[in-house]
Amino acid sequence: MTVSSGVSPALLAAAEAFVRHELAALDASHDYAHIERVRANARNLARLEGVSEEQTALVDLAALLHDVRDWKYSGSDGATTEAVEAFLTAQGADAETIRRVLYIIARVGFKEELAAAAAGGAASDAAGADLTLAAGIVQDADRLDAIGAIGIARCFTFGGAKHRVLHDPAVPPRVGLSKEAYMTGGDKTTTINHFYEKLLKLKGLMKTPSGGRIAEQRHAFMEAYLQQFHEEWAGRA
């Protein structure tokens, strides 16, 4: 595949090695296999949305790097940006490529959408249609891996890694979460509540038509699963 001068095959190969090393110690909800799935999702969405080869290369690179030093593990909201910028700079990436990658990965997270909602909606930043679409593709690709059958598996894997209770009927899902409350979590956060606080909302937050269509089936699968879960929990099934 022909790629832009800003995103060369050598840079992509270096990013693969870098991300494998960075995520090696993480649990299976955010390991390198997650990155591979998000990357495949992103490539598929780029194809379905008719994105150019140059933009697809940018999407590919951002999908690879989007979870480096994730705040859920690093404890720092700015760790991803710092690590990715340092990596790309060390690889000799040009300033425009670095700017575009950082723009995309800064918009992947659910917490950023909560912050934008609290501010009255996402502000216009004159990024341009191509870059906005690229960011939407990577965000949708990541969110598709958070829902459906794999999303369910990842949710329970992460909950187990954090020693969360599976379910507590006495603890209702939190409503109207702020970015700060979402990041803080709380002692009574349960794995099942995460579906209602985040995962079931993602279908309505997809940015691309293709992502929205794929999300429909995955969302329905989660709803069916939760219905069965609650029936079994109550001893009715």
UniProtKB/TrEMBL annotation:
Residues 32-146 form the HD domain. It holds the Pfam family HD. InterPro entries: HD/PDEase_dom, HD_domain. Gene3D superfamilies: 1.20.58.1910, HD-domain/PDEase-like (1.10.472.50). This is HD domain-containing protein. It comes from Gonium pectorale (Green alga). The lineage of its organism: Eukaryota, Viridiplantae, Chlorophyta, core chlorophytes, Chlorophyceae.
